[in-house]
Amino acid sequence: MQDTIRVALIQPKPYPSLDDPRNIGHAMQLLERCRGERLDVICFPEYFPYQGERELAGAARQHKAYIIAGLVEAEGEKLYNTATLFDRAGRLLGRQRKRNVSVLEREQLGISAGDGVFRAFATDFGKIGIPVCIDFWGQPEAGKQLAEQGVDVVFNISLFPVLRGHWKVGVLTRAFDNFFAVAGVNTADYNALFGEKRIHHHGGGSFVIYPPKMLDKQDFRRWIKSLNDIEDWVRVKLDGLEQVHFVEIHLGTVRRFREDFRNRFGFRQY
Question: Is-above-0.90 flag for pTM?
């Protein structure tokens, strides 16, 4: 397993209607910025590009990277808001359906709630979780389930008409609870269209959060004793504009010191 992974956070400015097929082409344009970057994971936000599995699978093969995208899955007569994961060969590795579906999603998009089971997905660099938006930062259950399965890094794809400020605070709490690394990916700031209704999405603020890199037990003990806050866990925070941002996420410390961290604070062992 790799100690460090290289990730692309793609923070797009979508077309106003979430299901606009032009968002697929826009996603492909943004992926062009990833060419030659030797990435492990490329992550889009919630509901982007909404559709386009064939195109995304081809892009995963081309870039030889895992791709996480916000797609709507149809099963029978039901629609689900999912984080969909493709592997480096372009194969569909799995989907995570959103459990806590908003009134707007139900009434305007016809989205049904997922089953509330949060799954770990095995990659060539370790296990990841891909809970959607408020499922991760709003309640502790997703984090607990993923920690039980040995996940090292969570990709939390999101879309925010409101509560963007709560997002980072909630994710910091989940990261501290479970000694996770977390990448949170939002859209850029834009005006969305739901039928005849326009809603401003307070976009931007995508981030990467993980514990400080520590080399040995003494380093870990010194860090514990000096712990006054965990703001230094926030390694990257983007502004509100459309962008593709490349970042390294160090997973070695997460793996090396998670059990010591839980034991020191008396957290329940998984």
Answer: yes
